[in-house]
Amino acid sequence: MYETENDIPEQRRSELNALMNQQLANAVDLQTQMKQAHWNVKGPHFIGLHELFDQIDEAVEGYVDLIAARHRRRTLTRRSRSQSLVHFWTRSPQND
Predict the structure, then answer these.
(1) Residue 89 in domain
(2) Stronger pLDDT, 95 or 69, i.e. the higher one
(3) Which among 36, 50, 74, 76 could bridge 17 via Cys, Cβ 3.0 to 4.6 Å?
(4) What is the CATH number of the domain that holds 52?
């Protein structure tokens, strides 16, 4: 854990770090799923769904940036590499 000027006790910072890493992984996963759907949509409602998935992807991208930026401001250790995020995806409740 990095040195910080905030007054959050180290134990709480550690818990916050884990929660924020999980939320960052969830947001990146959602963004990836939306882009995948955007690329693979077919059928009579193609254009509407194609645009919808693209809009959701762009909106989620803003949240990914926000979560990562807040995480960094708190000088916590974030997992930003895709290989690190896989750890959280494979440990999600639906995979347990």
Answers:
(1) yes
(2) 69
(3) 76
(4) 1.20.1260.10
Domain extent at residue 21: 11-95
Question: In Å, how far are 3, 4, 64, 69, 86 from 81, measured between CA atoms?
Answer: 22, 23, 13, 15, 9
Q: Domains in the chain: how many in total?
A: 1
pLDDT tens digits for 31-76?
999 999 998 999 999 999 999 999 999 999 999 989 888 877 765 5
| Residue 92 DSSP code | S
Residue 60 amino acid letter: V
Rounded to a whole number of angstroms, the CA Rg of the chain reads 16
